Amino acid sequence: MSDTVNKVIKCRAAVAWSEKAPLSIEEISVDPPKAFEVRIKILKTALCHTDAYTLGGHDPEGLFPCVLGHEGAGIVESVGEGVTTVQPGDHVIPLYTPQCKECKFCKSPKTNLCGKIRLTQGQGLMPDGTSRFTCKGKTLFHFMGCSTFSEYTVVAEISVAKVNDKAPMDKICLLGCGVSTGYGAALNTANVEPGSTVAIWGLGAVGLAVAMGCKAAKASRIIGVDTNPNKKQYALEFGCTEFINPLDYKDKDFKDVIIEMTDGGCDYTFECIGNVNIMRTALEASHKGWGVSVIIGVAASGKEISTRPFQLVTGRTWKGCAFGGWKSRDSVPKLVEEYMNNTLPLDKFVTHQLPFEKINEGFDLLHSGECLRTVITCNE
Ligand SMILES: NC(=O)C1=CN([C@@H]2O[C@H](COP(=O)(O)OP(=O)(O)OC[C@H]3O[C@@H](n4cnc5c(N)ncnc54)[C@H](OP(=O)(O)O)[C@@H]3O)[C@@H](O)[C@H]2O)C=CC1
Ligand SMILES: N[C@@H](CCC(=O)N[C@@H](CSC=O)C(=O)NCC(=O)O)C(=O)O
Ligand SMILES: [Zn+2]
Ligand SMILES: [Zn+2]
Predict the structure, then answer these.
(1) What tens digit of pLDDT does each residue of 104-123 get?
(2) Its domain of life (predicted)?
(3) How far does residue 371's CA lie from ligand 3's centre (Å)?
(4) In angstroms, what is the span from residue 289 Cα to ligand 3's centroid?
């Protein structure tokens, strides 16, 4: 048994003291896990666009000071009373979409949105309404039920997936969010069929994982759309059959470009940016009668979508997707196995690696357009 069990752990965390400010590496105190909670030593975490979105002050649920991060992997350090499904030493991925298996959402095959702890998670707190983090006498909020930008974190038992302990943490951490989300949006939410025509707006890690999912589903045309011309090379590498840059068609309504290219529109379209104007374009570029458009991107506070209702009357469907539609505790260990047997590539998403103290450079990279994912080493 580790000598930290039942004790407060003092460790480094990247604290977000306020929005729009760089993270600050601080010594924080991490309390022991309470009942049905798990304390995790985080080995690796990646940065997702959603961390930047919340730090940028765009998240209506953003609370500060907090410990951000939700795309991580680590080892269970200790467990609270009543925890039965994981034990110290287990390799785990924290889950921002938990799976309690008891609530009406978990019992429904129609959704992966567990409702058990969503309220307190959105309040930046553990399920009992308190925080496990303090720093310089101040309480820090949790983030998305994960807070992986720390050497140690505490999460609910229903928010951890136990995974293969042979799997490399610097790759499988990506299954905590971006890759699982994009891949599942294609396979679960859209349920893309063989021979389909698809367009994907926004070729970051999420959009490229959609492309991978569409390729796995044997779509015949996968059109990658991004304003960054450097994304062409990634588009083709991750399964797009063609790449198109809307900035090359400034004199046209871009949805018409796609509609003309595809004889009336795509069977499936995906928005992976968080831009409500593009969400409309993606819907309207889907085919009359049967087109399905999936919103994955997270839009800034106050933004709303619109279209003419006629677009829906004439048979298009607008859908949304959180965490790829995966029932998380059941599915994430299987996705790790897919990685281990080489059916779900992760390595090529990791374009940058940084030590913990350079985490702010990871945000710069995310904004630079050069990077798909930066993986941070929290503990060796
Ligand atoms: N629903 C869910 O469960 C999840 C949602 N998300 C959300 O998904 C979105 C994508 O995340 P991620 O892949 O990490 O983000 P990235 O920022 O890495 O990728 C977004 C891409 O879109 C490009 N882009 C920006 N504006 C346009 C435009 N007008 N037209 C075409 N392309 C454009 C960007 O180009 P450039 O590089 O030049 O900026 C970039 O390549 C975010 O909104 C994120 O918050 C993420 C995970 C889960
Ligand atoms: N907090 C925001 C919405 C943020 C959001 O939509 N989050 C996604 C995951 S994004 C991951 O990188 C999600 O799963 N949402 C479902 C949920 O229950 O949070 C807001 O309040 O608008
Ligand atoms: Zn994310
Ligand atoms: Zn549930």
Answers:
(1) 999 999 999 999 999 999 99
(2) Eukaryota
(3) 15
(4) 32
Mind listing the pLDDT tens digit for each residue in 220-234? Answer: 999 999 999 999 999
**What is the 3 state secondary structure string of the chain?**
CCCCCCCCEEEEEEEECCCCCCCEEEEEEECCCCCCEEEEEEEEEECCHHHHHHHCCCCCCCCCCEECCCEEEEEEEEECCCCCCCCCCCEEEECCCCCCCCCHHHHCCCCCCCCCCHHHHHCCCCCCCCCCEEECCEEEECCCCCCCCECEEEEEHHHEEECCCCCCHHHHHHHHCHHHHHHHHHHHHHCCCCCCEEEEECCCHHHHHHHHHHHHCCCCEEEEECCCCCHHHHHHHCCCCEEECHHHHCCCCHHHHHHHHCCCCECEEEECCCCHHHHHHHHHCECCCCCEEEECCCCCCCCCCCCCHHHHHCCCEEEECCHHHCCHHHHHHHHHHHHHCCCCCCHHHEEEEEEHHHHHHHHHHHHHCCCCEEEEECCC
Percent of the chain past pLDDT 90, that is, above it, reads: 98
Q: What is the pLDDT of residue 1?
A: 66
pLDDT band at 137 (very low <50, low <70, confident <90, very high): very high
ipTM: 0.98
Instruction: Please give the positions annotated as active site.
Output: 48-50, 70-71, 100, 103, 106, 114, 118, 177, 373
- Residue 316's pLDDT band (boundaries 50, 70, 90)? very high
Q: How far is the CA of 226 from the centre of ligand 1 (A)?
A: 9
Residues with CB under 5 A from ligand 4 (ion): 100, 103, 106, 114, 116
Could you list which residues have their CB under 5 Å from ion ligand 3?
A: 48, 50, 177
> Does the C-beta of 234 come closer than 6 Å to ligand 2?
no
